[in-house]
Amino acid sequence: MMKYTFLPPARLLLEDGTLFEGFAIGKTGTTTGEICFNTGMTGYQEIYTDPSYFGQIVVNTTAHIGIYGTYHEEQEAEKPTIRGMVCNAFSHIFSRHKAEKSLQSYLEENNIVAIAGVDTRRLVQHIRTQGAMNGVISSENLDIDFLQSKLQETPPMKGLELSSQVSTKQPYFFGNPQATYKVAVLDLGVKRNILRCLAERNVYMQVFPAKTPLSEMQKFNPDGYFISNGPGDPAAMPYAVETVKQILEINAPLFGICLGHQILALASGVGTHKMHHGHRGLNHPVKNVITGKSEITSQNHGFGVNREEIEQSSHIQITHINLNDHSVEGLRRTDKPAFSVQYHPEASPGTHDSRYLFDEFISLMQK
Q1: What is the pLDDT of residue 367?
Q2: Which HAMAP family does the UniProt record give (predicted)?
């Protein structure tokens, strides 16, 4: 573990009482949230700005963080959405010709409290064994009683509705107005690169706030509907489930990613569950059971769809499975032009194995 003798101390306390000592980086302060880890070897800025991480403290499993700085084009949202960050070796200097600032400056400007010098291998092994739980980072008050009091004030992720907090407040347009296809996007915490991937396929979009009724989206006269990724517990989002039910009733083409996948399942009568510690990283193996081919995928989710309920359904088909734990990674309605995946085919910086799913959505709108 690297020592930072020039940095003030910081502490990370988990709700089960496990304590990690480290050094303060980012903004001086205190923050709480559900602790989770991402195994991606690169792309830390994309991780920090993914709205799906809202309410969470991210542990980077890559040993060195900050070495290539930050660049505005690599944002997935206007600003970071994480509640805190944990890493092992942190670099205050960076070396990349197009980088605009150091990660330290970036964290400070965006009020992100973080801790470095942590034994992240031990921390990740603990989360994998004990499961996801809340944690608190502080670089301003290291008193254990203070940290415990902050944890007691932090609600568990299960049951939290968070999408309305990260969704756009006003509808907006994205893409070329002269494009062939029009898609209404229900923004539950959409990543910017999803919109880019659709725009590259001749799609013009109107992006709507999370709680927009179908009647309002229909005024755009879309050829299809996209249900985005986002944070929180899908079971705490009856408004989105009802909207998707209505889209299914009108038989409009529908594509969902991540949280959108879970919402489609709920709208189809299939339940969801809180996972032990979730899937987050760039190297998760998934098998397309329709084609028999496998793909390496980028993932970020802490909730899943109940597989046994899909297997008992007469109108839902499993299309993709996770090769590590056999969880459901994709489904489609056999009676409606609707499908979804749990992972992120738009992943930036990668992988790109699953970009074909956007083409399948285009094909649905051509019928």
Answers
A1: 73
A2: CPSase_S_chain (MF_01209)
pTM of the model: 0.95
Q: Known binder of ligand: residue 14? A: no
Residues 6+ positions from 245 with CB-CB distance below 8 Å: 267
Active-site choice (197, 258, 295, 320): 258
pLDDT of residue 3: 55
Token reading at 216: 């309002």
Is 322 annotated to bind a ligand? Reply is no
What single letter denotes the amino acid at residue 94? F
Structure tokens at 229: 């990724």
Tell me if residue 344 is catalytic. Answer: yes
87 labelled catalytic: no
293-308 as b/e: b if 16+ CB within 10 A: eebbbbbbbbbbbebe
Domains of the chain are: 9-152 (3.50.30.20), 163-366 (3.40.50.880)
Q: Is 4's pLDDT higher than 70?
A: no
